[in-house]
Task: inverse folding
């Protein structure tokens, strides 16, 4: 599912540029495409519960430190290296920003991946607010995990109510840019709240996932098809991003049961590989939006020029994401863990 979400986000951002109408509208629209970021949050919450719910029952300070080290090792190496390319692009005058726009607080906040924490930090990688907010959510996991996985169903249901209320608070904040839930600006804590609530819902999907098992395999397979179609219908009708968000919850739940149709649509080799490199795809793709616009302007400002340039950009992004995963993400993950893990004494 991460692979599908990453691809839709790329297509969404390449369409959300002002070309066809003289700078007053998008080239094409994918209504509520920004919500795929919330899908990332839900998926991350589910995966954390799947892998760590037992470990957090008797969590120690050392165990949590080891958990956070693995999370930093997962996200930071690719973030840091890719951010250097954004800095180079700004320094070369190839973006609308200038290095002088960033103060010492901004540089410090970007270095420590804090742009999504509501600390008034201007991000170098605009989309990295989501990874930053997710990192902040990990710090809350010693509180969120016991609450959402509590054996007392009433306590867990209270967590559901709080998470849904938080998402509604974000949607009514009036800070959304592309829609009511498209709240990303780092001058408030709403982006962090958006991430925490999505993450909580992922944790809760794991907690109540057994409810899906009461459905027959045939019904689950039907839902795997019907729910994405319903999401597409909501998008096409431009109905409500809150409605689309609500549909994500049963979709993640039914996909988590790993049924036949889930495997066919989301577990095939292509989609799975896109999921593996999805983090690098997400961070890299905004680098190429402005280049694609420049290509459109250079070659006559025809729609087909922008479409062809976008397809070329997609291929480059995919290739660079593979390189990033192989040469940065995986080696970086091992290096960070090796550098900061306690050294074992040599055997006698």
Result:
């Amino acid at each position: 599912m991460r692979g599908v979400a990453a691809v839709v986000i790329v297509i969404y951002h390449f369409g959300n540029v002002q070309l066809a109408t003289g700078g007053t509208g998008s080239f094409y629209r994918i209504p509520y495409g920004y919500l795929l970021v919330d899908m990332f949050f839900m998926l991350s919450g589910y995966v954390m519960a799947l892998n760590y719910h037992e470990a957090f029952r008797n969590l120690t300070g050392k165990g949590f430190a080891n958990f956070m080290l693995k999370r930093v090792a997962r996200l930071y190496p690719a973030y840091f290296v890719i951010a250097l390319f954004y800095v180079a692009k700004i320094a070369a005058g190839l973006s609308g920003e200038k290095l002088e726009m960033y103060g010492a607080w901004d540089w410090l906040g970007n270095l420590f991946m804090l742009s999504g924490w509501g600390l008034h930090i201007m991000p170098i990688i605009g989309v990295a607010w989501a990874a930053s907010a997710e990192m902040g959510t990990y710090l809350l996991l010693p509180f969120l995990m016991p609450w959402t996985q509590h054996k007392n169903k009433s306590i867990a249901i209270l967590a559901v109510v709080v998470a849904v209320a938080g998402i509604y608070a974000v949607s009514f904040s009036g800070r959304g840019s592309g829609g009511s839930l498209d709240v990303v600006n780092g001058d408030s804590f709403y982006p962090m709240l958006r991430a925490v609530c999505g993450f909580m819902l992922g944790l809760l999907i794991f907690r109540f996932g057994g409810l899906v098992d009461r459905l027959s395999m045939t019904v689950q397979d039907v839902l795997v098809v019907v729910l994405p179609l319903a999401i597409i219908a909501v998008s096409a009708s431009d109905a409500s991003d809150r409605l689309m968000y609500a549909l994500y919850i049963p979709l993640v739940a039914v996909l988590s049961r790993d049924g036949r149709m889930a495997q066919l649509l989301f577990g095939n080799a292509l989609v799975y590989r896109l999921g593996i490199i999805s983090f690098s795809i997400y961070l890299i793709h905004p680098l190429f939006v402005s280049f694609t616009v420049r290509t459109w302007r250079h070659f006559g400002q025809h729609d087909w020029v922008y479409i062809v340039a976008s397809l070329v950009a997609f291929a480059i992004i995919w290739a660079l994401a593979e390189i990033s995963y192989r040469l940065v993400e995986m080696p970086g993950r091992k290096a960070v863990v090796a550098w900061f893990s306690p050294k074992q004494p040599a055997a006698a």
Remarks:
- DSSP finds 15 helices and no strands in the chain.
- The mean pLDDT is 93.
